Amino acid sequence: MAEIFEFSDRGELLSQIEDGLRQFNARANPDIATDDFGFAAKNAQDELIGGVWVRARMGAAEIDTLWVADGNKDKGLGSKLLRKAEAEAIVRGASLIHLNTFDFQAPRFYQKHGYEIFGEICFPNGTTKFWMKKQVGII
Q1: Closest to 103 (Cα-Cα) out of 129, 84, 122
Q2: For the whole model, what pTM was predicted?
Q3: What angle do CA 37, 82, 21 make, to 5 degrees?
Q4: Residues contacting 62, CB < 8 A, separation 6+
Q5: pLDDT, tens digit (0-9, with 9 covering 90-100), for 40-62
Q6: Which partner for 40 in 14, 49, 51, 80 could form a disulfide, CB atoms 3.0-4.6 Å apart?
């Protein structure tokens, strides 16, 4: 009989679980292999002030993380990072880009860049999470 136990760190156990799922996915759908990439921005003091991480697969790309440091918002850096990620996703064969964001993060920012909401859930505390998408490149 299997022993089930709790764990809370993001270390070796989580890596093994994620690896097991990746192996299953690769067997079930060979096109699911990811082509991950990202871009980062530093200021004149060589401090990291923003970045974006993207997972491209199956003709689409997922914006996994886009972050701009406080003090650097509303200066166009997020837009530059997003446009750079979108352009690279198209080069890598994406015709669809998707992401998720909370209502306190950046849904209006993404809508301004042509993303549309295709799903949402409202958490019991009133926070809403949105799933968004954008068609890009030649479809």
Answers
A1: 129
A2: 0.86
A3: 40
A4: 54, 55, 56, 97, 98, 99
A5: 999 999 999 999 999 999 999 99
A6: 51
